[in-house]
Amino acid sequence: MANPKEIFVEDLKGKDEIISFFMVKAAALKVDSRKKEYVDFTLSDKTGDVNGKKWDVTEEEKPGLSAIKEGDIIKIKAQVSDWQGQTQLRVLKIRKSTPADGLEQGDYIKAAPEPSDEMFDYIMNVANSISDSDFKNITVTLLQRNMERLMYYPAATKNHHAEYGGLLWHIKRMLMSGEALCSVYKFLNKDLVLTGVIIHDMEKLNEIDAKENGAATGYSAVGQLLGHLVQGAAMIQELGRELGISDEKIMMLQHMVISHHYEPEFGSPKKPMFPEAEMLHYLDIMDARMFDMEEAVHGLEPGAFSDRIWTLDNRRIYKPTF
């Protein structure tokens, strides 16, 4: 059955009022400055996410709205507005979809542009190509032990690579860039760079809570209390000793993980202190920003500007006419 969706997230800009189906990514009952209750939604489809508000919730509306959960597909009538440079929906009417609508949840899930099994095979082939036996062993072991979850896991709860298979997509493109840049900066230890890329975000599998449809539902307790940098350093020490890897190599990999966010305000207690760790940071930030840039211009008319992108310092990104 053809998807009966009237409009997609990427097409909202410039619209005044819409009627369409979306998947609920998050929903929370809140209270505004007037002490009035409202529901704050994150709504999504294959093209992206958008914030929606159902203002002035009445007692009669509460039971129906409370029944709407993450993962539900809903049909809404809404006004489209711009709030602080971001597209927002003012929900006027809302109902859950029914079997008669002929919809499937998979139609509303944003996914990486390549099949997960193909991305995983690419990454595993790179791991198997690593010459250093210790680095090869730790990367292959991690990939094998986490294969099932890697197939669907996002790389974030929102922003870059927050999509089905997003973590694999992030790792794959970083590997492609890393291999190319190691051919330019020939003094780099390529095995160390590639190993750092494969393991640097692996503990996001335990930091983020995600469903098998790729939707992140938040952060785990250990994710909130420690985060994937600290978790990653602990994991490397435990696995490295299990595999008989030298203390120096374990320490180097731990440093790459804890330093790849670069700044203390982003979670890194140390800045990179050897070239391969520095390269890992730039590979990571380049892929994240290029992802956000690509998302910003996707669906834009030539000559138009995007909404403000928080991860890009609230810049509005321009799509040229040529």
Brief overview, please?
The protein has eleven helices and nine strands. With 322 residues, the protein is an alpha+beta fold.
Provide a descriptive summary of the structure in words.
This protein has 322 residues and is of the alpha+beta class. The model has no long low-confidence stretch (mean pLDDT 92). A hairpin with a 5-residue loop joins β1 (17-31) and β2. It contains 11 helices and 9 strands. The strands form 3 sheets. Strands 1-2-3-5-4 form a 5-stranded mixed beta barrel. 39% of the residues lie in helices and 21% in strands. The protein starts with 16 loop residues before the first strand and ends with a strand. It has helices spanning 62-66, 116-129, 133-145, 147-150, 166-184, 190-199, 204-207, 221-225, 227-242, 247-259, 275-297, and strands at residues 17-31, 37-45, 48-54, 73-83, 86-96, 208-210, 216-219, 305-309, 315-318.
List keywords for this structure.
39% helix; single chain; five-stranded mixed barrel; 322 residues; two-stranded antiparallel sheet; 11 helices; 9 strands; elongated; alpha+beta
